[in-house]
Amino acid sequence: MAKAASCWKICCNYFVLLGLFVPATAALSFGFYSATCPAAELIVKNAVRSASSEDPTVPGKLLRLMFHDCFVEGCDASILLQGNETERTDPANKSVGGFEAIDSAKRTLEFFCPGIVSCADVVVLAARDAVEFAGGPSVEVPTGRRDGRISAATNVRPNIVDTSFSVDQMMSLFSSKGLSADDLVILSGAHTMGTAHCSAFSDRFRKGPNGQMTLIDASLDVTYANELMQRCFAGAASTVVVDNDPATANVFDNQYYKNILSHKGLFQSDSVLISDGRTRAHVERFAKDQIGFFENWGQSFLKLSSVGVKSGDEGEIRLSCSTNNV
Description:
There is one protein chain. By secondary structure, this protein is mainly α. The chain has a domain at 186-291: Peroxidase, domain 2. It contains 13 helices and four strands. The strands form two sheets. Strands 1-4 form a two-stranded antiparallel sheet. A two-stranded antiparallel sheet has the order 2-3. β2 and β3 form a beta hairpin. It is globular and about 60 Å long. The termini are far apart.
């Protein structure tokens, strides 16, 4: 009952938001595929469930995949396109995963509803389902996105958050996508799942001439820093991955905010959220209130899923997510 009430509240809040974001969401609707492919969302959910059951890191990968897609060219599945100099080839996307789950869902959709469901919608639905599968809130999302035809590696770096960003830099980038400072703190909660290579936070340490690493970022808990240094020893840092959340790695919860307050945020871009008065209050609130975080997550997730949406004559409905139609 409580979960149903929470979902109802999220949906109602979304309709309020629609008044502010009509241009981005005008072509989207709830139940967009109800007549043309009524099992579309169930097919995606089953693919996510199957992949996540085999590999508990899949939910975090699918959520990150959506972020990296929507922030570059909008939510149009441009990150899925393969080829020379595509988004997928940029070093910032080398560690992005979850593609197999997307491809699995798309193959099933093409079997039952050929040429109907866009890869862009699959990416968003899969990320939504990944959060729910990992224990997070269930969010109703509108569909009807179309797939973009453009994917360029040069568009990646200017449009995604670097782990060394300051609050001002992150706010500026989020604002350019129609997202607020509140959305920044809420969507950063995605780091409650997922993994990162040592290179993603290596700027918080210094490597000595003997190969040993020392902590240079005083904002990081010393014990936690020592654990990271033990994992990221010299010579293996390029291949070793660590959990974003050292406490509940594969669970979508509010532990991320507790970690930050305990100075155990993995990235510098996490830690700075408590050093700025514009964001610290939200971190403190969500660390104490998981229900509040879940409700706010639903609203911010919906806004993110509407960034740069293509509709009408824009883009296409790809038959294969990795290639444009001929």
